[in-house]
Please model this.
Amino acid sequence: MSRDQLSITTWVAAAVFALAVGVWRPRKLHWTVLGAVLLFAALNAGAGIYVMNHVGDPRWSAGEQPLSAPSFSGTPMVGQFLGPLDSALSAVVGQVNTFLAFKQALPVALGFLGMSGWALLVSFPLGILAAVVSYIQERCRKAEFEKYRASVDQLKVELEQIKRQISSGNAGSTALPAGDEVPDARPRADSNRTVPGSHKGLGTEQAPHRAG
Model:
């Protein structure tokens, strides 16, 4: 992975994290943004540490070739005496190459560390903003809960009133007053009954007999 690819990877990872968590928890978008910024800072810090741990990597050298020490051991007549000089020059050139590799890798690492520092700097106001938004949401949630509980209590009171009205109505309808008794309208059988022999008695009555 080249320097540019490593830089792009930090941005892509933070964006994917923000998108995925934002879709999963849309009500916590402020915390998602803060988490994405902190992830971006952590990834850049890790990239800077990675660069410093691979100082001699040619990816940070921008195409510059390391130095090579000249060899004097092949010199005629005196080459055998110049062997220690070759070793000393190789050690010096190796140290110079190490210094040059560190010099080339340091700006790359500082670039990643600088991005991490800017992300951390941005995360402070984002953290304060996220805390304020979360506090406001919590207040609104508590207000809605209190309103819901008040509505439930009111409904309970109304339900108790309806129960009492229904129970009092049932008690009044089951007990009939004494004056509401229905009189018996059926005709009596003995009032229409005819006394036997009554017609005969009426028909046999005669006027008193006159003498002579």
In short: Helices lie at 3-24, 29-53, 83-174, 198-203. Residues 4 and 55 are 17 Å apart (CA to CA). The radius of gyration is 56 Å.
